[in-house]
Amino acid sequence: MHIESPIKRRQSRQIMVGNVPVGGGAPISVQSMTNTETCDVAATVGQIRRLEDAGVDIVRVSVPSMEAADAFGEIKKQVSVPLVADIHFDYKIALAVAEKGVDCLRINPGNIGREDRVRAVVDAARDKNIPIRIGVNAGSLEKDLQKKYGEPTPAALVESAMRHVDILDKLDFQNFKLSLKASNVFMTVDAYRLIAAQIDNPLHLGVTEAGGLRSGTVKSAIALGALLLDGIGDTLRISLAADPVEEVKVGFDILKSLGLRTKGINFIACPSCSRQNFDVISTVNALESRLEDIKTPLDVAIIGCVVNGPGEAKEAHIGLTGGSPNNLIFREGKPSHKVDNADLIEELEKVIRAKAEEVDAAGGDGPVKITLGA
């Protein structure tokens, strides 16, 4: 199946967060944030490594104190993924992590304080080529904006953001990305659409405090999906009250659904019904768990019966159609061999891993199923 994507990416500047390009047509990066105590170096490094295993591109770490800044330096030495330091109010912490190899500073210039302090942070960032992320949240708007608008609104978020942008503009600093987050879907979408028309800096997408694993995933998928379909967004974070690894999985699943990233396996699976010839749900759950380590982009169709099974299998790299007495495995759209229920999961894992190795050995990413817009 060859589908022309309607997505036309918004043109934006490009910045580098460590070795990860953000904006300028680069692949949309997936970010997460640690929730360990930063001063617990071992725990934080362990969590970052789990995020790396899940495929994360960038990790944010809260740095609320000088002790945490010292710990950040030790953490940075032990991981390879780019790290963003999350800093509020104390400009000295920003200067400290700048000396410790931080890849990006998440600050709001407006809450750093006096102009000379903001200038000191920007000068350090410029000197070491460290980008800044301006992060505006509906829950922490300036008091005068709360009074002006009565409550958080898209326009209030944009006005707050432009105050910070103006500060950096006056300091002739354009190496920054920007986020405008709310917990409300409509406010988030409208704010990003407004700011996207005013600046060309890269935008970091997210719904802040989205909720738990299920509700937060749904809310984030709706808001970010709408923006991504508009071509808006250069990097994203799914904010869930859950294991940060789940944020990475959901982020990639959203991007894969739109053909914007192809890392890992895209499972096509039926919801199952009384026609199924094997337990579809347990099979898919088992394969997702067993194959999380595969980063090769593959389409795998798991269909429980012959109604839609052959059609879906023919469009996937690997397909399974339920049948009696045995199920049929497809490779590249062609029938390959049959397998009974007792051996189903083991055989599928073997076949999928073999296909991933074949694609990797060929130096490719597998057949492209979606053509992306420019």
Textual characterization of the structure:
There is one protein chain. By secondary structure, the chain is α/β, with parallel strands linked by helices. The chain has helices at 41-53, 66-78, 91-99, 115-127, 143-149, 154-170, 185-196, 213-229, 244-257, 280-290, 309-314, 344-361, and strands spanning 3-4, 14-17, 20-23, 29-33, 58-62, 83-86, 104-107, 132-137, 176-181, 204-205, 235-237, 265-269, 298-303, 318-321, 327-331, 334-339, 370-371. It is elongated, with a radius of gyration of 23 Å. It has twelve helices and 17 strands. The strands form four sheets. An eight-stranded parallel beta sheet has the order 9-8-7-6-5-4-11-10. It starts with a strand and ends with a strand. β13 (298-303), α11 and β14 form a beta-alpha-beta unit.
What attributes characterize this protein structure?
single chain, 374 residues
Helix/strand/pairing category: alpha/beta
Shape: elongated
Taking the alpha carbons of the first and last residues, their distance comes to 20 Å
What is the arithmetic mean of pLDDT? Answer: 92
Largest sheet: 8 strands, parallel
Indicate the percent of residues in helices: 40-55%
In angstroms, what is the radius of gyration? Answer: 23 Å
Following the backbone from N to C, one meets helices and strands in this order, namely: EEEEHEHEHEHEHHEHEHEHEHEHEEEHE
Widest sheet: strand ordering: 9-8-7-6-5-4-11-10
Q: Give the beta-strand count.
A: 17
The percentage of residues in β strands lies in 15-25%
Low-confidence segments, given as residue ranges, are 365-374
Helix count, DSSP H or I runs of 4 or more residues: 12
